[in-house]
């Protein structure tokens, strides 16, 4: 197939098919929507013959193209045959004249070649509207169904090759298993030559051996055999699992089917000791900025007054060496926890903050996460199990954005209800872990 070439301002040549050239692309407008039906100018007869031959080729056949003409070489033979003057002298008027000599059917075929079916569209939308008949009237579904039903009833049925006759059976009569078995039994009894004798197994001897072995087997082995066979309804759980694992039965699990199992005695675990942290001592050491005072844990200390908790938080703001502050299950509310905003914004050493199981509102939790963006030193933030379990979509989106902007957080203990918030927070934490890993490799000298 011959090709025309369209030169862009960047001096790059793009091949154009003859369809695009016929639609006005030779004038410099690639992808023009001009239809060849709208163009009408005369052209030489040999060009018309060539285009007609090209329009009859299969669209899905392999496309044949020529490379761009090179200086110092003779033009291709097809180019010389197409027009004696060459493609360089072929202007729009010649193409318009060529299309003007085509008939309506030829132009329609040419249009079908230029605009093939789009495989991305469903089949019902690929075809063009080809109906030329005028509608007989408005569409009425009930009338159409009635017309189709009447037409089906009025038409005569096809004539059968063999007319139907009542009482006559055609073909073979089906025989069930009973008839086949009876016929096989008759042939087997009659001893017809060529029939194979049925295979018979005598299991009486083996059954007697099994019965004798089971009669003399101890009940311990029978318990194991019942467990292996899956008869768990006559065994207890220790016997059943011991049989499956091949451990055997012992006195603790019972060696008989009616054995009594010793009850499980739970181990006595001592209660956790009360938190004996001296809050006043912690406040004093934090105010003095003690270097050894790096962790403060007042978990489960609900009897501490609210005023002392406020003093503890304000003293932690003055310390530059505190790394971890745990205040879980201390019954603090927004009035006491509001001082944590200043702590997160000013403390360059705080790494872990635990305020779980308290009465903090979702709005203050969002402000606390937003405060971590100032220093970006906090690596772990735990604030689950608050009085208000549902945070709300707006609060969750605000907290999600804060986590995404923070490059130091590695763990966030907040129960998000929104799937988007959970997914994006987990992705942000994964990025922070990867950033930390690369930083460690860089300091170790493994990454340049």
TrEMBL record:
Presence of keyword Transmembrane: no
Annotated segments matching region Disordered: 116-140, 172-192
Source organism of the structure: Cylicocyclus nassatus (Nematode worm)
Gene3D superfamilies: Ribonuclease Inhibitor
A GO biological-process term: pointed-end actin filament capping
Basic and acidic residues bias spans: 172-189
One CC-aspect GO term: myofibril
Pfam assignment, any one: Tropomodulin
PANTHER family, per database record: TROPOMODULIN, TROPOMODULIN, ISOFORM N
GO molecular function, one term: tropomyosin binding
Domain of life from the UniProt record: Eukaryota
Keywords linked to the UniProt accession: Cytoplasm, Cytoskeleton
RNA-binding found in the keyword field: no
Protein known as: Tropomodulin
Stored InterPro entries: LRR_dom_sf (IPR032675), TMOD (IPR004934)
Subcellular location: Cytoplasm, Cytoskeleton
